[in-house]
Amino acid sequence: MTDAKDERRPAGELEAGVMAVLWAADAPRTPGEVQAGLAADLARTTVTTILTRLHEKGMVERRRQGRGYAYYPVQDAHGLTARRMHCELDRDTDRETVLARFVAQLSADDERILRDLLEPDER
Known about the structure:
The chain is mostly helical and 123 residues long. Helix content is 54%, strand content 10%. Strands 1-2 form a two-stranded antiparallel ribbon.
């Protein structure tokens, strides 16, 4: 039997929760404010660590507030997804093959959307 303390959250779950709190906010949030907005019961130090990692990844910016920082997202959720797609593309040296395989796996609807985005004058 697994102890609840020993169960690990899926990778990225905590970061996603923190980002959701920041996206919903109308202003930068301190780690304590982010902690209060999370459904998970996390220590403030854990939230601070997550925010620091997000800052190091370039996903959030921060500004000095008192003795600490207040954090805010750099992009909305869609922009962040696009950024991750670019990062994955940049990991491979054969961009043409990666893009070709990506396009080959698109649904007909997604292919139409991509075509419309790439050729806006031909609509």
